[in-house]
């Protein structure tokens, strides 16, 4: 009986976890954390924000109770992590990215989607742009890329190119182009191409300009599934995009192979799905909303690996980054 009670408690814990998440998202929307870089009183925050002082106090105490902020006597302040990630004064601020991903992956109204099924138009076309706002995603994910994607990429490529440099780099479906831009900065004699659809490409053009790399990094606009992606590349970065080629996987992988020079490198980041679609659970839940809407995109890692090796690639190195799988293939 005691074991059954413990299991029941885990169910009730989910209710608490949901309330904690709701509180966290509300604090982000209210930009609470940006007021708390230094110790500050409720009265001062209320004066600066014009928020209701009574309910502000309740929210701040609740945030402190779950250790998202700290309370020192009658003043509040960010934790070290909160100041680093959740205050807009930090260049590593990820609050907008968290809010966008919560909205993008929301399971609101899941009951009706199960009762009545997916959107027939989305099912028919099976295109990510029908469901996702890739332009906004490219903007808000820039800090995430700098936090988690850049360092492993640069470290690995420095190992591969110890005595030389890549001449031409492609960041395929690269969103903001941050990965390609930073790789070009790491290899100052290289040229880069960011390939993106026209609307999203504006984000990449802006980031290229901010990094003063307009003479070395260009933007190519189009559909990387259907259109020519160029050739003569030494490195192709394909981060989180191969699932979108699901209906044309073998043709797409051949396109990658043909675009590379001899001994060229594919830096491939996938979602690491198992063949039974049970792992990793966090990513499965993250994609669930779009799949309920009608998308059918996810590819198990084994299917991707088989397609790569069947096209002539050899696996050079593999690693993990959180729930993502990093595989480096060589032509």
Automatic annotation (TrEMBL):
Gene3D superfamilies: Vaccinia Virus protein VP39 (3.40.50.150), Winged helix-like DNA-binding domain superfamily/Winged helix DNA-binding domain (1.10.10.10). GO terms for biological process: methylation. SUPFAM superfamilies: S-adenosyl-L-methionine-dependent methyltransferases, Winged helix' DNA-binding domain. It comes from the Bacteria. The keyword Transferase applies. The keyword Methyltransferase applies. Pfam families: Dimerisation (PF08100), Methyltransf_2 (PF00891). Keywords: Methyltransferase, S-adenosyl-L-methionine, Transferase. GO terms for molecular function: O-methyltransferase activity; protein dimerization activity. Residues 15-87 form the O-methyltransferase dimerisation domain. Residues 167-273 form the O-methyltransferase C-terminal domain. This is Methyltransferase. It comes from Vallitalea guaymasensis.
């Amino acid at each position: 009986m005691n074991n059954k009670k413990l299991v029941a408690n885990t169910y009730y814990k989910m209710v608490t976890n949901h309330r904690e998440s709701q509180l966290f998202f509300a604090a982000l929307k209210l930009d609470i954390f940006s007021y708390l870089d230094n110790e500050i009183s409720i009265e001062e925050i209320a004066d600066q924000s014009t928020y209701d002082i009574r309910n502000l106090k309740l929210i701040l105490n609740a945030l402190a109770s779950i250790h998202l902020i700290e309370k020192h006597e009658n003043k509040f302040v960010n934790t070290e992590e909160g100041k680093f990630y959740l205050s807009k004064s930090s260049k590593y601020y990820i609050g907008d990215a968290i809010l966008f991903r919560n909205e993008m992956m929301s399971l609101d109204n899941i009951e009706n989607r199960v009762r009545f099924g997916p959107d027939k138009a989305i099912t028919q076309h099976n295109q990510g742009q029908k469901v996702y706002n890739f332009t906004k995603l490219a903007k808000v994910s820039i800090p995430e890329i700098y936090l988690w994607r850049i360092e492993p990429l640069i470290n690995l490529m420095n190992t591969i190119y110890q005595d030389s440099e890549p001449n031409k780099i492609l960041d395929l479906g690269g969103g903001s182009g941050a990965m390609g831009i930073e790789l070009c900065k790491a290899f100052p004699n290289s040229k880069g191409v960011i390939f993106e659809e026209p609307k999203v490409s504006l984000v990449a053009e802006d980031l290229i300009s901010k990094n003063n790399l307009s003479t070395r990094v260009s933007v190519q606009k189009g559909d990387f599934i259907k259109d020519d992606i160029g050739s003569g590349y030494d490195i192709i970065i394909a981060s989180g995009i191969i699932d979108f080629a699901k209906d044309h996987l073998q043709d797409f992988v051949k396109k990658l192979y043909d675009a590379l020079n001899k001994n060229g490198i594919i830096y491939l980041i996938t979602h690491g799905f198992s063949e039974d679609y049970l792992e990793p659970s966090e990513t499965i839940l993250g994609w669930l909303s779009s799949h309920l809407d009608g998308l059918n995109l996810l590819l198990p890692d084994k299917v991707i690996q088989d397609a790569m090796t069947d096209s002539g690639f050899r696996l050079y190195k593999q690693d993990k980054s959180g729930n993502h799988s990093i595989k480096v293939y060589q032509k």
